[in-house]
Amino acid sequence: MNSLSFQILSLFYVGLILFVYFGKKKLDTLENRIYVSLLIINFINQIVDMISVYLGIKEPTLPITNFFTKFYLVILLLWVFCFTYYIFVISSKKNMGNTVIWKNKNMGYFKKVFFYFLGTFSIVGILIFLFPLHVWSDGKSMYTYGPSAITSYATTFICLIIWTICLWTNAKSLKDKKYLPVFSFVILAGTSAVIQGLFPQILLVTSAASFITVLTYFTIENPDMKMIEQLNIARDQADKANNAKSEFLSNMSHEIRTPLNAIVGFSQALKEENLPEEAIEEVEDIISASSSLLEIVNGILDISKIEAGKLEIVNTEYSFKKVYNELVSLTKARIGDKQIEFRTHYDELVPPVLYGDHTRVKQVVLNLLTNAAKYTKEGYIELKVSTVIKNDICRLIISVEDSGIGIKNENISQLFSKFERFDLEKNITIEGTGLGLAITKKLMDLMKGKIVVQSVYGKGSKFTLAIDQKIVPKDALEEIVVESVDSTSFQNKKILVVDDNKLNLKVATRLLTPLGINVEEVDSGFACIEKIKEGNKYDLILLDDMMPKMSGIETLSYLKGIENFKIPCIALTANAISGMREKYINAGFDDYLSKPIDKNELNNVLSKFLSTEEKTMV
Ligand code: ADP
User: Fold this and answer.
1) What is the arithmetic mean of pLDDT over 25-31?
2) Does residue 263 or residue 430 have the better pLDDT?
3) 15 with 146, same domain?
4) Measuring from atom 8 of ligand 1, which residue has the nearest CA?
């Protein structure tokens, strides 16, 4: 292998990379521009190197040989300066992307540094040309020596030190930005410089520079990789924006719940008064409008929680029969006096106790039943439950069929996208947000279930769900069954309501006082603790969780530390998402009420804790 072999080989692969690089679409960033310069300089350097090596071997004493060899040294140095600038830039850069953000620096700073580099290079370049250079040759190989060569080697050495300092001081951020390969380039360049120093006739330096340029392409500067990186950054930014939106929606829904609590609470209380008939009707309208509003808020809360990955499936033991019965009565109420026959089929083979998220199972089926009731004017709605049992798994197959307006074929693929509503000219009077089916699909995915739709436009639709639930080998579920509420049993009972919101306190008092309950209000966890410490006795404490300074959970854990504290505590929260009950029970609460407080739920809780309990198997 003669001295030119390395050069020919290097020229070939640098030429190839140059060709490929220019053939690709690139991002216009500073380091890309430097890299293009590196490629071009390296290519020219390779050609000049070949000429100077050829002349050096054949005609070492000719002035043209001397000129070409000096020219080669200057271009090699230009590459070294360029690479130094490249390392300087990548190790100072804070962020990658089209809009480059620099660590405490702006583009002007980098321009200034560039001119320093250019100035230094020009001075060293002139010195190389001015200083004497000698060429040694034995007819087969050659090398150069003398002050000119020493100047170029010394400058390269100084640049190597600058590379090392830049990389060393920014090692961590370079690792994060996947610039790790640059470290090995420094070692490669250093090693080849040492080898060249020990065996000058090998002429390794230019080939090493080419090799580094090519490796940079494969590891860092590959335009495809850069594009993918850009896309990843764009995706991360979009994800962040989406999360911010979900967070905003979730906060908004939470905020809306508080005033809604007042509307629902006061109208429920008003309904009990001796009002004229028209007023009762209007109060009922307020209640129905607020429950629609609540449904919308809950939908937004659900979808934003699901999208933020914060909605968890909370599995507990439950009775599916109970869920089914609730679904039937809710649907009957929803159908109201429409001319619709509600058919039901229940497979008695469904095991009495299952393990799953009953709230979410109920929610998905209820969404389908509500839609069926909404989009059917007359005819029938059929709810069918069947089951396939294998080992300890019960596959629930639940179908909801209707003879309603049906869905056009072309709309079926969009059915589960959020905010999609179809046939608006027909449905304009039907309330809806287009969130129900999107939530249903996402919940089914979370529960690893399946949902299938069949529909004939103008004839009707059929939605079928398949959900696997674990079978609990029990004959029945132990549960507290509340006897019908007898408000007289609450007479003279004393309840402490803790909430930082004055309006919420007023609502609770308004709902509890007509039942003969003695209500005391405090507006913070601290005040609640104070009351207990003073020795006040209560039959029940309703404790809001989201309070400033001391949350309900923190207040409760303090209360539990007070000697002989045995008062049952109920958590109050506007965060009505699944898993909340379990969260509060685990935190030590006896039960949980979501805001807006539903009168029936409140009555259930009161009966459970203020009157004699009775445990029954259902
Ligand atoms: P919403 O009912 O609040 O509009 P959904 O996500 O529940 O939102 O449903 C999306 C759309 O799918 C509805 O607007 C309606 O056009 C159509 N759709 C859903 N269920 C039925 C059904 N049972 N019959 C006819 N169309 C339906």
Assistant:
1) 76
2) 263
3) yes
4) 434
Ligand 1 shell residues, CB under 6 Å:
371-372, 375, 402, 404-407, 415, 420-423, 427, 432-438, 461
Contacts of 165 (CB under 8 A, 6+ apart): none
DSSP 383-438: EEEEEEEETTEEEEEEEEEE-SS---HHHHTTTTSTT----HHHHTTS---S-HHH
Among 297, 366, 286, 363, residue whose Cα is nearest residue 329:
366
Same domain for 147 and 274: no
Residues in the chain: 618
The pLDDT, as a whole number, for residue 535 is 85
Instruction: Classify residue 486: in a domain, yes or no.
Output: no
Domain that holds residue 278: 245-307
Residue 127 falls inside a structural domain: yes
CA 576 to each of CA 134, 238, 275, 617: distance values in angstroms, whole numbers, following the listed order: 86, 28, 32, 28
Co-location of 79 and 180 in the same domain:
yes
| Each residue's pLDDT tens digit, 472-511 | 988 777 655 555 555 566 778 889 999 988 888 888 888 8
Q: How far is the CA of 602 from the centre of ligand 1 (A)?
A: 32
Within a domain: residue 235?
A: no
Task: Identify any residues that bridge with 520 across adjacent strands, giving them in sequence order.
Answer: 496
482 occurs within a structural domain: no
Residue 222: other Cβ atoms inside 10 A: 17
371 C-alpha to ligand 1 centroid (Å): 6
pLDDT, residue 483, reads: 52
**334 and 282 in a common domain:** no
Question: What span, in angstroms and rounded, lies between the C-alpha atoms of 567 and 559?
Answer: 9
Domain count for the chain: 4
Question: Do 288 and 335 belong together in one domain?
Answer: no
- In the reported structure, the alpha carbon of residue 412 is separated from the centroid of ligand 1 by a whole-number distance in angstroms of 10
Output the residue whose Cα is nearest ligand 1's atom 23. Answer: 372
414 with 551, same domain: the answer is: no
Residue at 284: amino acid letter: E
Share of the chain above pLDDT 90, in %: 27
155 and 268 inside one domain:
no
Ligand 1 center–CA 434 separation, angstroms: 7
The rounded mean pLDDT for the chain is 83
- Supply the CATH number for residue 133's domain: 1.20.1070.10
Q: Domain boundary residue among 187, 221, 255?
A: 221
Residue 454 half-sphere exposure toward CB, CA atoms < 13 A: 8
Can you point out the beta strands (E) in 242-297? none
- Segment 523-553, tens digit of pLDDT: 888 999 988 888 888 889 999 988 888 888 9
- Host H or E run for residue 294: helix 277-307
**pLDDT tens track for 329-364:** 889 988 988 899 999 999 999 999 999 998 889 999
Q: Is the pLDDT of residue 186 over 50?
A: yes
- For the chain, the maximum distance between any two Cα atoms, rounded to a whole number of angstroms, is 120
Centroid of ligand 1 to alpha carbon of 307 (angstroms): 21
Position 436 scores a pLDDT of 87
Task: Give the CATH number, domain containing residue 508.
Answer: 3.40.50.2300
Pocket of ligand 1, candidates 306, 365, 371: which has the most ligand atoms within 8 Å of its Cβ, to mutate?
371
What separation in Å is there between the alpha carbon of 509 and the centre of ligand 1?
Answer: 40
